[in-house]
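Try it yourself: sequence plus pyridoxal-5'-phosphate, in.
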Amino acid sequence: MIYMDYNATTPVRPEVLDAMLPFYRERFGNPSSIHRAGRDAKRAVEEARERVARLVNCDPAEVVFTSSGTEADNMAIKGVAEALRGRGNHIITTTVEHPAVSNACSYLEQAGFEVTRVDVGRTGLVDPEAIEAAITPQTILISVMFANNETGTLMPVAQLGEIASRRRIYLHSDAVQAVGRLPVDVREMNIQLLSLSGHKLHAPKGTGALVVRKGVKVVPFIHGGAQERNRRAGTENVAGAVAFGKACELACDEMMQEARRLALLRDRLEEGILTRVPGAQINGSRGRRLPNTLSVSFEGVAADSLLMSLDLEGVAVSSGAACSSGTLRSSAVLAAMGIPPEIARGSIRFSLGLYNCDEDVTRVLDLLPHLVERLRS
Ligand SMILES: Cc1ncc(COP(=O)(O)O)c(C=O)c1O
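Structure, out:
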């Protein structure tokens, strides 16, 4: 199989698996236990926390381990909303967020909060001035993703951080697709809350973290023991945390070199598609984009049919469109960018990663023109 769907998930790296396995076997202690086995597990979790913190430049005490990126998003948005309810009831976000953010916001709307979803332009970028213009005296939180999962477009988070800190409003960024792929620095970018997910950077599914900067108020929504400094109760997923920490350490060491390698592969794929497949067009910003992501629309083709044809040839990609109750709905993200439905319906996301190489790109470029032509005819 040629796997080009790394934005959906990534395989657990052998080094990560090796790091976590002892915590399912002989090092099985509970970090809350006082005895040696407990202290060993506690030390492992704290080392993992340091590794996560180093990757995004925060204090280890600011890292709260969660069960996923989705949980981190929910904790940030609902936790801040509840903590600052007395100060205001307005949240600003964008029209292209992941459902973990947009549906958490919809939930809060039903509970009496006001949510402004700021539009993006054709490239998927939000204008920082439009975000600032949406601020009211009631605004308590701005939540804007770091990198879009479908198009890879990188939001102007550093500029938003400057605006949010000047206006004394918390900035949350869902950085699930960015962490481990590009430098993310919460101090430099003035980000108060940052969501991470382990399975996008070669740790297992069901691992994640929310960075909560010192002094930021977040009401916990899981109640129980005092784990995670009273911010998330429940016995820690020790092996998961260790794996996540190891994956962050590897990303720290290799990220920049890997980003350059993937950008070259992605650009060759992009150029090849644009020259060999008539009527192909790129979605999102070509300049401000994750190095591994390429979203392309093939006019006159249903993305799911192309996805299945590629799958039969052993190539795994994803489509921007979602099939729901038998009808093909085009992606909400592409619709929000103003891409017409007939174009959006033919959109495919290639997201490259660690195990892709030049031959993979060559193979896909050999296959694609014929498959698209066959589907069109
Ligand atoms: C931008 C973004 N946010 C949040 C998530 C959810 O993360 P998880 O799968 O860990 O719940 C994803 C996963 O696809 C994502 O792409």
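One thing you can check immediately is this: The domain at 14-251 is CATH 3.40.640.10 (Aspartate Aminotransferase; domain 2).
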